[in-house]
Amino acid sequence: MKYYKFNRDRKLDAMQKYWKSFKKQEYMVNTDRSQLLDSFYYESQTWGALHKAWKGYIIAKNKDELDRLEHYAEVIQKLQDELGLPISSFETLDQITNLRRRWGLDTGY
Q1: pLDDT tens digits for range 70-84
Q2: How confident is the model at residue 4 (pLDDT cuts 50, 70, 90)?
Q3: Alpha-carbon distance 75 to 43, whole Å?
Q4: Where are the domains of the chain?
Q5: Secondary structure letter of residue 3 according to DSSP
Q6: How far, in Å, are 10, 55, 62, 96 from residue 102 at the CA level?
Q7: Please, which of 5, 24, 28, 81 could form a disulfide with 34 given CB 3.0 to 4.6 Å?
């Protein structure tokens, strides 16, 4: 079975896809289903980014990629703050920061 059979927008060119997405976002805003946040992203876009960040965090944790793990943990905390959600604490993020301090490595800040 070919995967492209399930993609309804495969016949649309890039401009048509952009216009369809724009109209959908415009509808969400006009019906008060999505709000513009302080970061100038819409609430629905931020929820999507949060979902992708969690997925990236899980993949990085399974592959033991500490640099990406730290990156995704920081992104998750930032997005949760923007959405007004309780901010998650990550043990691995604290451990990485402590290791960098102990070895005198640059913390990246």
Answers
A1: 899 999 999 999 999
A2: low
A3: 15
A4: 41-109
A5: G
A6: 52, 30, 25, 10
A7: 28
